[in-house]
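Ticket 4471: requesting a sanity check on a complex prediction with fructose -6-phosphate. Repro inputs:
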Amino acid sequence: MRVYKAKDYNDLSRKAANIISAQIIMKPDAVLGLATGESPIGTYKQLIEWYNKGDLDFSEIRTVNLDEYKGLAADNPQSYAYYMHTNLFDSVNIPAVNINIPNGLEDDSVKECMRYDNVIHQLGGIDLQLLGIGGNGHIGFNEPGNNFNKETHCVTLTDNTIDANARFFASRDEVPRYAYTMGIKNIMQAKSILLIASGEAKAQAMYDSFYGPITPNVPGSILQLHNNVTVVADEAALALILKEHEITSGGLIK
Ligand code: F6R
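Returned structure tokens:
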């Protein structure tokens, strides 16, 4: 695991975008696993800026998103499909057919999860998976206690996650109760993983994920077993780790 300490959110976003750019340049038809939430907004902005400068080309890039609320249409402003179009896809030259997001309107969970796993397998797996992390250590919508062995599945959101996401909705009651998410197994099969984290609300989850025991109670802790993980986080998110460890300029931990 490599850990890059960022000065602030802008620095974090630029560093993360640099890693994604390198992937796009090295493999123009790479499969990118993408995340939503607050953490990647700056990263996507930076990628758009470099695309506008002519430094990046998304014409052959394929994408698979981590998750989507069950019950929300792609044109619902709270859906993750809408978020992705607004924050990235509509501003770069990625062909619509190359974009994959779980279909929130598919009522049959078994059918939708099988379809999505097939999409990922047919693409040949994920080259680079971008992840945020929840304050409770969740990755994707894989909540604490969820089995490490799952592929795409439908989850019942925890109260903690509903509370955290309520800020995006008019009221807490409007937050959907279910979501489709890639499972830990899909995430662990990605060839490389880039996890970004910002702010002190993530400090405990970061410490537990990377320095605690590997346990389904902290979903992010499984990443200790992946052989190609890069973490980019700001000082606040790394605060508890930095109390005990030093990060070298090469991003390695002493
Ligand atoms: C988003 C996702 C979630 C978020 C996590 C952090 O697609 O799967 O796991 O990455 O909840 O969210 P933010 O970045 O809003 O703190």
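Notes from triage: The longest strand covers residues 192-197. Leaving this open until the requester confirms.
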